[in-house]
Amino acid sequence: MRAVRLHEHGDADVLQVDEIDRPDPAADELLVEVASAGVNPVDTYFRDGSYTPVDVPFTPGVDIAGTVAETGAAVDGFEAGDRVYGTGIGNGSSQGAYAEYATVPTDRVVHLPDGADLTEAGGAGVAAVTAWRALVDHADLEPAEHCLVHGGSGGVGHAAVQIGAAVSARVTTTASEEYHDALADYGAETVLDYARDDLADAVRDASDGGVDVVLDHRLDDYLQFDADVAATGARVIGIGENSPDPGFTNDGAARSKDVSYQFMSMFNTPDLRVPLRGVAHLMNVGNLSIDVAQSYDLEEAPEAQRAVMNDSFLGKLVIEP
Ligand SMILES: NC(=O)c1ccc[n+]([C@@H]2O[C@H](COP(=O)([O-])OP(=O)(O)OC[C@H]3O[C@@H](n4cnc5c(N)ncnc54)[C@H](OP(=O)(O)O)[C@@H]3O)[C@@H](O)[C@H]2O)c1
Asked: Of 5, 66, 244, 292, whose CB count within 10 A is highest?
C-alpha cells in the first residue's frame, strides 16, 4: 500500500509517499481502508517534533474515516465493510491515516451513520470532537446562553458554531468578511470581523452585555479580551495559542466577574467514542456539516500541511488517498 511517511522531523518537505506492507490489525484494532483523513495543525506538530517527538518512519494523520477491511481477533461489534470514523491515532503511539490503509484501536472509532458523508467525516475528528468537548463537556453550554467562538471559519471554529447552534445557544463568532454569510447559514446569530477596532464593544452589544461561554483558540491574543467581554460567571475554554505566554493586563476584569478558565487537549478525552458518537449524530441529522475546503491526494501531503498552517479557508482540508 502507499503511505505518507517522514523519516526525520522537519518541515513539510520531509513527507514522502512510500510503498510499504499493509499493516495487520492487533487484537483490539480495525484495519480501515482510508477514504478521508483530516489535515490538522497538530499533524504538523508531530511532523516537526514540537508536540511529542515520534519514532520514524512515521505516518501522520490523527483523523480517519473509511471502511473496515479487517478486524483484530478480539474485536466485537465491527465487521468488514462497516463505515467508521475516528480520531486520536497518528500521535506516536500509533501510525496515522495519511495512507491507503490504517489500523485503529476500537476505543478511538465509531460507526458512521448512513446520513453522514465519509469525506466530511474524515475531517470531523479533531475539529468537531474538540468543539464538542469544549462547549458540551467543559463549558456545559445551555440553550439561550451567549457563546463567543473566536475564528469561526476554522476547522474547530465552524464545528463549534454549528454545535453551539444545535444546542440553541446564541452564537457570536469572528471571521474574515468573506466567510460571514456561510457562518450565518451555519447558525451564528452574529458574525463580526476579528480585525475591527471596536470588537469588544460589538461582542458585548451582540450578547446583552457579556458572553457566558468563550471558545478561544488564540489565548495569547484573547485572554484579556475574553475577560473583558465575559458576563458574570462566564466559562472560557482555551484550546490553543500562537505563542506560549498568554497573560492578563488587568486580571481584575476576570476576578470581578468570577470567570472560570478551562484549558484542554482533545487527547485527554476519557472516552473518545462518546463525543465521536455525538458528532456523528449531529452529522446524521443534518445539524453539523464539515465544510471540506480542499481535498488532496497522498502525494500532495506536504502542500496540505503547508496550507493548514498558512492559508485561509473555511472548514477543513482532507487527504483522500
Ligand atoms: N487543544 C486541543 O485539543 C486542540 C484541538 C484542535 C485544535 N487546536 C488548536 O486550535 C487552533 C485552531 O485549530 P483549527 O484546526 O481550527 O485551525 P484552522 O482551521 O487553521 O483555523 C484557524 C482559524 O483562526 C482564524 N484566525 C486567524 N487570525 C485570527 C485572529 N486574529 N482572531 C481570530 N481568528 C483568527 C483563521 O481565520 P482566517 O483564515 O480568516 O485568518 C482560521 O479560521 C490551532 O492552534 C490548533 O492547534 C487545539
From this structure: 66
Question: Which range of residues forms the domain containing residue 17?
Answer: 2-124+290-319
Spatial contact of 59 and 102, defined as CB atoms under 8 Å apart: yes
pTM greater than 0.90:
yes
Domain for residue 203, yes or no? yes
CATH code for the domain of 190: 3.40.50.720
Pocket residues: Cβ below 6 A from ligand 1: 40-42, 126-127, 130, 150-151, 153-157, 174-176, 194, 217-218, 221, 239-240, 264-266, 308, 312
- 113 vs 110, 123, 125, CA distance in Å? 9, 15, 15
Determine contact, residues 305/121, Cβ cutoff 8 Å: no
User: Are residues 198 and 259 part of one domain?
Assistant: yes
My answer on whether 202 and 73 are in the same domain is: no
pLDDT digits (tens, 9 = 90+) for 83-142: 999 999 998 889 999 999 999 999 999 999 999 999 999 999 999 999 999 999 999 999
Q: Same domain, yes or no, for 223 and 145?
A: yes
- The pick from 162, 217, 242 for probing ligand 1's pocket by mutation, whose C-beta has the most ligand atoms within 8 angstroms, reads 217
Q: Is 305 among the domain residues?
A: yes
Same domain membership, residue 63 and residue 165: no
| Domain total in the chain | 2
- Residue 154 CA to ligand 1 center (angstroms) comes to 5
48 and 104: one domain?
yes
Length of the chain: 321
Tell me which residue has its CA closest to atom 29 in ligand 1: 151
Q: Tell me the C-alpha distance between 310 and 302, whole Å.
A: 12
CA of 131 to the centre of ligand 1 (A): 12
Give the distance (Å) from ligand 1 centre to CA of residue 197.
Answer: 20
- The answer to whether 308 and 41 are in contact (CB under 8 A) is yes
Please tell me what DSSP assigns to residue 136. I
